[in-house]
Design a protein that fits this description.
Layout (H helix, E strand, L loop, with lengths): L12 E5 L4 H11 L4 E6 L2 H13 L3 E6 L5 H14 L5 E4 L5 E2 L7 H29 L3 E7 L10 H24 L4 E7 L1 E2 L3 H4 L1 E2 L3 E3 L5 E2 L1 H13 L5 E3 L2 H12 L1 H11 L5 E5 L30 E2 L3 H7 L1 H24 L1
Parallel strand pairs: 1-2, 1-4, 2-3, 4-6, 5-9, 6-7, 7-12, 8-11, 11-14
Antiparallel strand pairs: 10-13
């Protein structure tokens, strides 16, 4: 995208979808440390209320609006209210999703449609209302929270993988249009690894055992830090978080057939713990589970003891330009030294 001088400063009004728990909750906390104004969107009112309290405790300003992102009119109405009460939106973070853990033939058409409407069309709706406001002003940033599964599908998550692939294709097509139109608005995408969030406690599952993230598992603060970094550096097309994300994307480019067989062999067991699934556990596919009679989930899931903080790959992803420059300089120096030695 074209670079606007105003984009050099950090965003001051940020909208985060899926802000009631998990990565969205961690992103809201991270932005709140800068004392920004935050518009928070999710379906669960109890979780939104807690997220808003955390933002205010950190010194930020929060306006929480319960919205189902699959409803474009509701998303647009929320954006209007954010701009009226908080000011012009600088950054919009699309993060809300839902899913189903089950083999494809055990997912009903209605369930598949619901995952698609929330996880994919929710991003489309958020992007549309953000652009409606940002394009006339010729500034702003949209951050699409993606996944390694946007490139490499895995078994037992056909609806979610399909939606993430759709977001990737949609964002690439949109980016081309924005460059053509010289909108001066930035759109970037952050591809995440497995993250320790409450989704594994509330996503609809028909697996025989309890669902889990595919190891290695990262804490949601790692994802949040990368998303905020992307908002600060929106000229970067994409960010990969974690070695597992990089290896999944590159492996699928190089040896996709081998990846098919590997995931067919390991993908079922790696997504389940040894504990049996609780058949009476509520799910959030059709309605939030953090209502008056449900639990209020935070950023973290149930896998703290197995989750890691940022590693070297995250640092390398953030400083890719410097690393490439240093590597090229070093290579040039070695080549020059070799030429001098050959001359002697």
């Amino acid at each position: 995208m074209l670079f606007d001088k105003r984009a050099e400063s950090y965003p001051s009004v940020v909208v985060v979808t899926g802000a009631s728990a998990g990565v969205g909750r961690a992103v809201a906390r991270r932005f709140a440390q800068r004392k920004v104004k935050l518009g928070l969107i999710a379906r669960g009112e109890a979780g939104l209320s807690k997220a808003a309290e955390e933002v205010r405790a950190a010194g930020g300003e929060a306006l929480a609006i319960p919205v189902d992102v699959s409803d474009p009119d509701a998303v647009r109405a929320a954006a209007d209210r954010f701009e009226t009460e908080l000011g012009p939106i600088d950054c919009w973070v699309n993060n809300a999703f839902t899913s189903v853990f089950a083999p494809f033939q055990e997912v009903t058409p209605a369930e598949f449609r619901r995952v698609t409407e929330v996880t994919y069309l929710g991003y489309v709706n958020g992007t549309r209302v953000a652009l409606e406001r940002m394009v006339p002003r010729r500034w702003g940033t949209i951050v699409q929270v993606g996944s390694a599964l946007a490139y490499r599908g895995i078994p037992l998550q056909t609806a979610y993988c399909g939606a993430k692939h759709a977001i990737q294709g949609f964002t690439e097509a949109l980016r081309c249009e924005m460059i053509h139109d010289r909108t001066n608005v930035n759109v970037t995408m952050v591809q995440l690894p497995a993250v320790n969030t409450p989704q594994f406690d509330w996503v609809l599952s028909r697996l025989p055992r309890r669902a889990q993230p595919v190891p290695p598992i990262y804490q949601p603060e790692v994802a949040a830090d990368a998303i905020v970094f992307a908002a600060d550096h929106p000229q970067r097309r994409e960010f990969w978080v974690g070695w597992s994300t990089a290896l999944s994307i590159l492996g699928n480019r190089l040896v996709p057939r081998l990846m098919d067989f590997y995931l067919a062999r390991t993908g079922y067991g790696s997504q389940q713990t040894d504990a049996p699934r609780d058949p009476d556990r509520p799910s959030n596919l059709w309605r939030p589970v953090d209502g008056p009679d449900g639990d209020v989930h935070g950023a973290h899931g149930s896998f703290d003891d197995r989750s890691r903080q940022a590693g070297p790959q995250v640092w390398l992803s953030k400083h890719r330009g410097s690393v490439v420059g240093a590597t090229m300089s070093a290579a040039g120096g070695v080549a020059a030294l070799a030429n001098r030695l050959r001359g002697r």
